[in-house]
Amino acid sequence: MLAASRSLRRLSSSSSVRSLRRVLQHPPTPQPAAPPPLWPLRTLTRAFLPHLAAARGFATASFSSSAPSRLGECGGARGAPEIPEEVEVEDEAGALVRHDTDAYAAVELALDSVVKVFTVSSSPNYFLPWQNKAQRESMGSGFVIPGRRIVTNAHVVADHTFVLVRKHGSPTKYKAEVLAVGHECDLALLTVESEEFWDGVNSLELGDIPFLQEAVAVVGYPQGGDNISVTKGVVSRVEPTQYAHGATQLMAIQIDAAINPGNSGGPAIMGDKVAGVAFQNLSGAENIGYIIPVPVIKRFISGVEESGKYSGFCTLGVSCQATENIQLRECFGMQPDMTGVLVSRINPLSDAYKILKKDDILLEFDGVPIANDGTVPFRNRERITFDHLVSMKKPGETAVLKVLRDGKEQELSVILRPLQPLVPVHQFDKLPSYYIFAGFVFIPLTQPYLHEFGEDWYNASPRRLCERALRELPKKAGEQLVILSQVLMDDINVGYERLAELQVKKVNGVEVENLKHLCSIVEGCTEENLRFDLDDERVIILKYQNARLATSRVLKRHRIPSAMSSDLVEEQANNGEVEASCTS
Prior knowledge:
It contains 13 helices and 30 strands. By secondary structure, it is an alpha+beta fold. It has three domains: about 100-305, Thrombin, subunit H (Beta Barrel), CATH 2.40.10.120; about 320-415, PDZ domain (Pdz3 Domain); about 435-580, N-terminal domain of MutM-like DNA repair proteins, CATH 3.20.190. The strands form six sheets. Strands 24, 25, 26, 27, 28, 29 and 30 form a seven-stranded antiparallel beta sheet that branches. It is globular and about 75 Å long. It comes from Panicum miliaceum. This is Protease Do-like 10, mitochondrial. GO terms for molecular function: serine-type endopeptidase activity.
């Protein structure tokens, strides 16, 4: 990823940069009704609705349309059925009213395909990792694809405890099961066991990436009403964009159709096929929405079909610097006709770590020349960062890199796979790990923990932990930064209460690899004293047997059900079984 590209830090912390926000609908606070805008006559009229409803076998329903824009032919370049740009119908007074039909076509497709998703979720409390926060209800959209599956956004069902879906025109909600969730790409697959649900349901087909200024219609259930809604717009931009939910950079399509809370997971229809999935908008801007393009959707679905679960998106594991300065290029031996980017940092867990070297010039990726700014050609005179080529590869696939090293060109093969950061960016759909001993609460550092410090978490959270979370790379697989998050007061730990929010470096002289390692060292201690070495050369000394007795006392006082999270309990049980089998 180029150093100049937008980072999660800039996205979340800079007040001067508009941040992307997920468009997940929560039950809105009632607001006084605003007068409807005086748009040109492009809203479905009451006179025309009965004819449309009768043709589809549904009762008359109200639809909303906003953000009118000048539209071209919807998908005509891809052989979509020709639809007249406008139709004339009579209003209640008998006057002819002219309407665009792009929205009509979208409604025709969506009536039997788009569903409303109702989610009950409960997120963990990372300050008190043994308990969850209060459950909340939210709503989003989804649409049916072949194979009796429903596509929606990952943030619509994140941390779910119960999911229901409802078809348009039906009063019945059906229980849905989550088949797979990809938080990096903000996509999820649902299914419904009830046969009744699938009666009369049509599936939507995935199309192609739309060109600039092509018209799309976003269909879903945004806030402001309970019925289906269609908004129209055109494609403004296609490029890799920061995904707010997963904090990853993947291709996205910017459109000027209104995408509001509740639209999340709904399809953006172009012609008679899906051009993308609505998922976020740009806060503080008018009618700037984003949809997930078809290549990302197909990559997610194919990964689930092949492995039975979400497989992740590949990364090369390198940080690159642009080589736009001629002095920089000359220093590294680049000829005037050469273009590429400078390799500045390599993830030790990546395959590239064994093949590439710092100060290599990356010239080509799979035969595609990389420009000095890190972009590659895309369609008709468009350019995107070469990260997109990497992300579209399947885990385990090989990429051929052409590099310039010490003035000589070389072709190298690299195996691509998803890489996990040292400090996890998100922890959805799983319980946080923790370990309590003598009132000291130990946890692995995660960004969700830092987010508990508030919206301005970058400035409000401990500075040292925040910098490590955003910048440090893992040195080996399974490594975690274990921190002392808080001290639950007891006689045993008096005087140590100010040592919270520091990283644990060693336990009894042994460097800590991760939380499981720390837990095993403490539980297996045979010495009289137990020593913890922390940041800033701080030290904690405990009488081990007294500390074990104090642990039970602290747990009872604070009504904590267990001294360790379920994953550590299982680890301890497995270790006990192994030791028992060895001694027998």
